[in-house]
What we know:
Blueprint: E1 3-7, E2 12-17, H1 22-30, E3 38-44, H2 48-60, E4 63-66, E5 71-73, E6 76-84, E7 92-93, H3 95-98, H4 108-115, E8 117-121, H5 134-142, E9 146-150, E10 153-157, E11 167-169, H6 175-186, E12 191-195, H7 201-212, E13 216-218, E14 224-228, E15 236-239, H8 244-257, E16 259-264, H9 272-280, E17 284-288, E18 291-296, E19 306-307, H10 319-326, E20 332-336, H11 347-352, E21 356-360, E22 363-367, E23 376-378, H12 382-394, E24 398-402, H13 405-408, H14 414-419, E25 424-428
Parallel strand pairs: 2-16, 3-15, 7-8, 11-12, 19-20, 23-24
Antiparallel strand pairs: 1-24, 1-25, 3-6, 4-6, 5-6, 8-10, 9-10, 12-14, 13-14, 16-18, 17-18, 20-22, 21-22
Amino acid sequence: MDRIRIVGGNTLNGIIPISGAKNAALPLMIASLMTSDTLTLENVPHLADVELLLRILGNHGVDISVNGRRERQSGSYARTIHFTCRTIVDTTAPYDLVSKMRASFWVIGPLLAREGRARVSLPGGCAIGTRPVDLFIDGLRALGASMEIDSGYIEATAPKGGLIGASYTFPKVSVGATHVMMMAAALARGATTIHNAAREPEVVDLANCLNAMGAKISGAGTATLTIEGVTSLSGARHRVLPDRIETGTYAMAVAMTGGNVTLEDTDIALLDTAIEALRRAGAEISPVDGGIRIIGHGDAIRPVDIVTEPFPGFPTDLQAQFMGLMTRARGVAHVTETIFENRFMHVQELARLGAKITLNGQTARIEGVPTLRGAPVMATDLRASVSLVIAGLAAEGETLVNRVYHLDRGFERLEEKLTRCGAIVERISG
């Protein structure tokens, strides 16, 4: 099993290219099930989750063509992938595939909208919380679908003539459920209004792509979506937006280690709240042409309290990384997690590096320490794993991060990007 070895103490200086967003690429890829024409996606990251979803879509009958080699653009590698689903050959998403990645459950929306039926395995729990599918089920039922659970699968059937537009209010904000209902409603008869919809940039990106395919969606980026159903969608060409979580992660790494780094191919407007928190912590951040410039002062980090919230609040996917940053703050900071009930699994691993963190329910109290010291640590999930990398970059001595397959799910060429900026980071295989 691969490990990441980090020798801390170096500042970061140079350029880091930001990849396409995994959280945008996955629903965009699933949208290829909604048309018999070709959907071409540019700037698709090369990640374990993307490769798994390619397999899942192939199981449903999607023909996939990847441009021969990754295209080098502005120092980064961006793939273009063509998806063509002339015919859906299988409306079942089996447990052995869905259990490996929760987002694969989202195929239920396009399958139901295009074929009138879907049999999709329940995804089960995960390391950071149960994340139940009730919101998906209730939303699709509002569109007229019959939803039954049998032997661990959801059996979904649309009424004769297809799904029917409706007004529905989510009881809580859910990005995944918003994705699914938006795709299903795009091919429903009549108009659909979704209240309390997720407002994340990835939702906007999917809406933009669906509209390019012929959908009629308005209100993306607000809490109310209006979708006028159409009979069919066509192909389109769409570029995946930059990964705001990767952007924030590297910004926090620079803030913690010190240095001067330009993050290329990204947009400061994608994470206003996180950028503001970093500025309050002492980092200098400014937009530049096509990216963001970060200047960090690793020995002068100020404590900042944050609370995770749905967009435009502080992203839960940056909570672990920000906690890593706060372990070196001059004072006490508090991090409160409101999205997932079990997303502090990185705390005990940060403690192995010398961090002083105490938990009280969903709030962590972080007392900054002058020095972290390298140690073997264990990654527990995607975002927790990269928080350990950030801490290791600032720690004295050697840090070994185990279970790095978590990192491969969401960070493309992490070792290369950091090494190019002066970090000592290497992957150890076996």
